[in-house]
Structure formats: structure tokens, C-alpha cells
Amino acid sequence: MCTYLFFLQMSGMTSLGLIEYFSPADRKIADWFILTMTTGFPWGSGVDSRLQITDTKLRDVRVKIYQPANSLGKKKRPVLVYFHGGGWSLLSADCYDPIMRKISRESDVVVISVDYRLSPQHPFPVPLNDCFDVVEYVLDNSDTLGVDSSRVAIGGDSAGGNMAAAISLRHQKRIALQLVLVPVLQIINWQTTGYMENVLYLNKSINSPNSLVFLTNYLNLSPAYAHQFLINNHTSPEFKKSKYFDSVDQKKWMPKKYVRTKDLWENIEYKKDFGNQELFKKVEGYLKEPLISPLIADDETLSGLPFTYIMTCGYDFIRDDGIMFHEKLKYLNVKTELAHYPEGFHNALMFPHGPLKMDIGVKIIADIVRILKNKL
């Protein structure tokens, strides 16, 4: 409800001409709102003697580096490069500061939080390339950073999880661990059980059908096309019969046990005789791109992925992407762990502390810390 009221306020300010959607002012207000919800203060957290926090740039990309104070001076430290969520369009490394502090402090891992450029001003592949650049800098300059090049993890949530999975496809042999949290991993089929089961609950949340505008931002498309994606009208009848659609087949990759409404899973059936051909021609290249939809990567590529920790939540309309990714990696004998929180919601990981502290947020962050300690 808090998020819904925030978006109502933003809509009102936009209609009055006070701000523009996805402008610097819009994004700053969004950051302040999230920080207030998660810490109680719009300016976030103060000084922490247990961490050395540095704002800098790596390959011209702004980052925040968190170093546990007790590790300063050491040369072979584990490191997590993290990509924040926000639909490639909102939020920032500053907004994620409280979460990154907590993860670095409790795991004793150096964290590099990437402030990649945002859409629609910088559509695909710009945000992804910013993240690639930082990861490659860390891998190639580990001695300078005082980290161990064999203990590099990457991770992110939502859109950040998408980019973490994409980067692992290219740097699979150099990454020790990936954290793929509440990720969007495919843009082919939006009529999933996760969407159909949760759409009524989530209409007034940040994880609502309206968030498809974030995808159109990323793909440099008019937001008017967002609804076309939502009803799968962005794919042609021929494409719906292709190997790409088969790669996100829920009957094959979505176990029934994760679907609350059992007859929904049993009655999965996709009509394949429709589609907006004009829109399909605009997006065909994107639909076939594994760096946008890691779930459709070929088996040979997926087989080479590092240990993959996947987190999903029951009340999330992109719930199924992470679960299907886990099932596909298991099938290919990739080491993977799925942490599924049936009672969780899309951005629950933001609430392990602060005025809206939730048990589910505490649990999610504790599990992430456990994985970093045990696997990195």
C-alpha cells in the first residue's frame, strides 16, 4: 500500500508538470522513498566503523565499494559485484546502500555495488555493458583491489538478477558464484502461472502489470507496447511454435508444487494462433537474445555456469522465471540452490531492518550471507 500511495503521488506530480517520469528528480524521490521505508530516513545510514565505504568509478562507471574494516590490508579477499533492481529504470547504488552494508558486514565479503546507467535514456545494452565493464575490471585488476580473482561472485535482484545471469553466460569460467534474486529471465511468455496467480494481488504494488513499462524502457520501445507484452501479443504465431517458446515451457520446467492453484498448472495451455506481426518484427532480435533472456541460452552455455543461488518469492508475478532456471540448471547438472519463499513478495529483501522490518526480509538476507560464507 505504501508503494501504491507513492506511485499515486508521483503520478499527481507528473500530471501537474512538477517532474517527468524517469527524470533525475523522479529517481531521486524514488530513492528517498525507498530509503525512508528501509531505514526511517531519506538520507539513509550514517558512518559505520565496521566498514570502509568508498564512492569511486571503475572504467568510468560509478560504484560504491564496501570493505570490512577487519579485512583492510589483506590481498586475497572474496568479492561480490552487485547490480541493483529497479527495472533498469529506477533506483541506484545509493538506494541499496543499507542492504549492501549489511551483506558486506555480516558475510565479511568486499561488496562492489554498481550504479549502472538507466533506461529509457540508456536502453539495452548500455546498462548491461556498464555492469560487464565493472566485472571485467574486477577480474583483471584483482591485485589492485586487494581481492582474489578466483573468489569473484556476481549478483543482483530483479533487473539486476537478469544482468547477473547474462554476465555469467559470457564469463562463466571466471565467476565463482552467482546470486540470481527474484529475477526476470525471459521476455517471451508473460502468461505464466506466476503472473496469472498473482495479478489480482499485485495490481497496487511496484510488482504490478504496469511495471512492464520498465521492459519497454530497456528495449527502447514506446510504453504503449507494454500491454502487448503482457498478453503475449508481441510474439508471432510462428515464434510461439519455435524452440524459443519451448525453452520456457512451463509443463516441462515449472514444477507443480510451486503453484498454489493446482488446477491452474494442470490446465496450462497456450494459444499460438495470434500475434502482432508489426511489433514482433521490432522485437524479434531481442526475443532471441540470451543476454536479455538467459533462460533461453543453449544447453552447452548453461552447462558451464558456476554455482548458482536463485531466490524466488511466492507473491511475485515473475516468480516462475527463477524456478524454471533452477530446474533447467539441475537438468544440466549445474550446481544450483533454490531458496523459494512461498510467503515472500518481490522486493522483500529490502526489509531486513528499519521501520518496516519483516521476518521474511531478515531470513532472505541471512540466507544470502550464508551462501557467501559457504560458497565463496
From TrEMBL:
Record's keyword terms, sorted: Hydrolase
Coiled-coil stretches noted in the UniProt entry, renumbered to this chain: none
The Alpha/beta hydrolase fold-3 domain, residue ranges: 80-228, 284-348
SUPFAM superfamilies with a match to the protein in the record: alpha/beta-Hydrolases
GO molecular function per UniProt: hydrolase activity
E.C. code: 3.1.1.-
Keyword Hydrolase included in the entry's annotation: yes
Full protein name: Neutral cholesterol ester hydrolase 1
Organism the protein comes from: Mytilus galloprovincialis
